[in-house]
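Hi team, as promised in this morning's meeting, here are the two structures we talked about. I've kept the exact order from the run log so nobody has to guess. The first one is mostly here for context; it's the second one we should focus on when we meet again. Sequence first, then the predicted C-alpha cells.
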Amino acid sequence: MSTRAAAPARSGGVASVLLVVALSLVVTTLSLLQSLVIPVLDRIATQLDVSAAAAGWVLTANLLAAAVLTPVLGRLGDLKGERPVLLGILVTVALGTGLAIVTESLALLLVARVLQGASYGLFPLSISVLRRELPTRRLGVAMSVVSSTLGVGAVAGLVATGLLARDGSDYRDPFWIGLAITLLALVLCARLLPHRPPTGVGRVDWWGAVVLGAGLVLLLLFVSQGNAWGWTSPVTVGCLAGAVVVLGGWVALQRRTAQPLVRPAMLTDRRTVVPNAVGLLTGIAMFASFLAVLQYVQSPPEVTGYGFGATTLEATVVYLLPGGVVGILLAPFAGAVVTRFGGLPTLVVGGTFGTAGFVLLTWFRSESWAVIAAGLVTQLSVTIAYAALPALVVQAVREDETGVANAVNSICRSVGQALGSALAVTLLAAYLDPGTGLPRDSAFTWVALVGMAVSAAVLVVALLGLRGDRRAARRSRPDPLAEVEQATAAAGEWSPVSAIR
C-alpha cells in the first residue's frame, strides 16, 4: 500500500498545546459516555419498566457498535483524512446522546447507544492527528496526556452520574453532561483541527469490515451475556464457536485481499502483538477494579460484615476520583518516561503498580485507606499503560496505518473491559450469601486475585517484549569480521579472516 506524498505538518508552541487539549476532550467524550450508564442500570430498568437483563443491553449495544465501527473509522481516517472523520463521529455521537435524553423507549435508547458507539473511533484518530502534527520530541508526552483521559474520563463519568443521579432522579440526567462535553469537543475540533491531505491511498475493505464486525459481535456477546445466558448454554457456546470460526475466516480473507482492512503481518508482528495483549489485560484489570471497589464500598457493613455503606457519590468521589486526578497530573511525566526509556520498560512499571494495587485490595480492603490506595495505584497503572501503548503501536506501523492499527488496539482494550466486567459480575454472583442476597466477602478476594493475575501478566508480557527486542538488536548488529572480509575482497587483497574461516 502506497502513501501520498505530503510535506510533513508539524504544529508548534501554543497551537500544539491547544491541539492536545482539544483531542484530550475528544477522548474524554468516549470514556465518559462509556461509563456514565453503569451506576444507573437499575434505574433504567425501573423507569423504563424493563427487566435488569434487558437494561444490561444498554452496555452491550454500545460495545457491539464499537466492535463493528472502530476498525472502519480508523481506516477511513487513514484514507479520507482525520479531520472530516473525527467531526462526523462527534456529530453522530451528539445526535445519539440527544436521543438518549429525549427517549422514553428502551428500543430507542439502544439506538442511541449504538450511535454513541461510534465514539470508540475517536481515540485512534486522535493518535493519528498527533503523529502527523507534532514533532517527535513532543509526541510521547502528547500521546500520554490524550491516552490518560481514557481512564480519567471513565472515572469522570461515574462521578457525574453520582452527582446527577441522586434521590431517585431521572436516569437521563447524566447524559446532559455527555452532550455538553461532546458539543464542546466538536466546536474545538472544528476550530483547531488542521486541514491536511490523507496519508493513505486505496479503499476500505468493506467485506473484511463486515466479517470482522460479525466475529467481534459474536465474541462480545459471549463475553458480555455469558453470565446472563449461562456459560454452558447452547447460545453462549455457539457464540464462542462462531467467533472462532468467523475470526479465523477473516484472517484467511485478509491474506487473500489486495488491500485488506488490516494487514495480516500487522496482526502477527511481535511489536504490535505486545501492546494489543497488554491492552486486553489492562482493560480486564481496569473494569475489575472499578466494579469491585464500587460494590464493596457501598455494601452495608451491618448486613454483610464488610464494606463502608458509601453512597454512589461517595464511592466515586472518595474511592475512585483520587486515582483519576493523580493519573491526569502524572500523564505528562509518564509520557516523558516513555520518550526517555521506551514503551516496554514503562509497561514493566505499570504492571508492577497494578499488581501492588490488587495486593492491597486482596488483603487490606477492610481499611478505608487501603481501598483508596488500591484505587489510586491501580488507576496509576492504567495511566502508565495507556501512555505506553500508543507509542508502541506508532513505532511498529507505517504512518498510513496509524488509524487502523490503533483501532485494533482499541478493540483489544474494549474486549478486555467487557471481559473484566463479565469476570467481576460472574465471581460476585457465584459467591452470593443466601441470607442477604449480597456477595460474600470472599467474592471480592477472587475478583482482586484475578486483577492481580492480569496485572502480573502485563509485567510478564512487557519483559518478554524486552527480551525479544534484545534478540532482534543482536541479530541486526553488524558482524565486524564480515565487514573486514568484504572490504578486503573488494580491494582484491588476501584476507586473514577468510583464511581463518
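And here is the second protein, the one for discussion:
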Amino acid sequence: MTERRKKILLVGGFVVSVFGFAFALYFMFFKAPAPPATVEDVDTSGIGSLPSSLEAQVRELLEQEGLTPEDVGLQEADTVARGGITQTTELTSTAVYNTVISEDGNSMNYYNSGDGRFYTIDEDGNVSPLSDKQFPEVDSVVWNKDSEKAVIEFPDGSNVIYDFSAEKQVTLPSHWEDFDFSPVQDEIIAKSLALDPNNRYLVVSSDDGSRVQSIQALGENESKVDVNWSPNDQVVAFASTAKATSGGLNHTVIYPVGKNKENFKGLVVEGLNFDSLWSPDGKLLMYSVTGSYSNDKPLLWAVKATSSSMGDDRRSLGLNTWVDKCTWTSASIAYCAVPLDLPPNAGLGRALYEKEPDALYKINLTTGAVTLVAIPEGDTTMNNLYISDDDSKLYFSNSYGQLEMMRLK
C-alpha cells in the first residue's frame, strides 16, 4: 500500500470517528474568516457559513483511489437522527404539493396534481384519499389549524373553501387573494383587490364567506403586506411600507397590522426580504432577512412579539437560512433546514440555491442553544418541514417535490 493511501485511510477513519472534531479542523484551516460587522448595533455573533459534508469529501477521495468505505470503516447512515449522517425514507415517488401535518398529528396531507385529488399518507407510505372530489390545476392551498378545511385558489382567479370532513364547498369572491385561517376561530382573512385602489382592503370573514369586515385599507401597497395571523389573534399581517431608516438598507421597519386596528410598535429588522414564522403561543416571532452584515446571506433572528413586548429582545440565531425552512414544535423549540454551503449574495437570488443540500438544526429559544440534529443522507434538500405531534418523525419535501420522512427518535 502506498504512503498516499495510508494517509487517506488515516484521515478517513479519523473524520468518521471524530466527526465533530473534523468540523472544527475545517473551520480552523480551510474556512475563510467571516467579514467584520458593518452595523454597529447588530449582534452578529454566530454569523457564518456551515461547512460542506466532510464524509462526502472523504468518500470522493477514496473513490479516486479505488477504495471503498469499508476500507476505512466508514459507518452506514444512522436510522435515527443523532447529529450525523441520517437515513431518510421517500414516501412518494412523484412530486406532491401543499403538504401539511394531518389532524391526527402523525401523517401528512397533500395535493396530487396528476389526478387533482387530496390524500393523506402515513410513515409507512400508506395512502388514503381525503375526498373523491377532484380539483384540477390547483394554484395554491391554505389549510386551517386542524387540516380539515382548505382555501383552494385556481389559476383563473376562482377560490373555494372545502371542508374535507363534511364534504362541503363554499365559493369565495374571485378578487380575494392571499388567504389565511384564524388560529382560534372559524374565520379567514384575505386581500380584497378591487380594480380601484381606493377599494382595496384586508378583509376578515367567517369561513363560509359571510360577515365580511374590512379591517385595513391597502391602496396600492397590497404587494407590501404579508398576511400572517398570529396564534394569539392579535396580529393578522405585516406591512413593509416604511421609508428607509437612518441605518440604510440594513435597517427596515415592519409594521404589525392588528385585527382591531391596534397601533402596534414597528419592528426594526436588519435587512431586506423579511419573512416570518410565529411561535405556537404567539409570543415570539422568528424571521429571516438579508443584509450586508451577513454577506447578503439570509439570516435567522428572533424577537418578542406580543402587544406589550413587540420588538423586544431582538437577537440573531446565527443560522444562514430562510425562515420558511423552519418549523416550531413548542413555544420555545424550533427546527430549521440550513443549507450546508451558501455563497455571498445568496439571499439576493434565492432561486439559484433552491437545491442546495441541507442540515437539520434544533433551536432552543429559551437557552439560545443551537444543535446539529442530522445531515440527510444523499445531499438532500429539505423544504416544507413538519414534525409529528410526538416529535418522533420529521416530514419534508425534497428538491424534486417528493415527500420524505426522517426519524428523530
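Starting points for discussion:
The two ends are 42 Å apart (CA to CA).
The mean pLDDT is 85.
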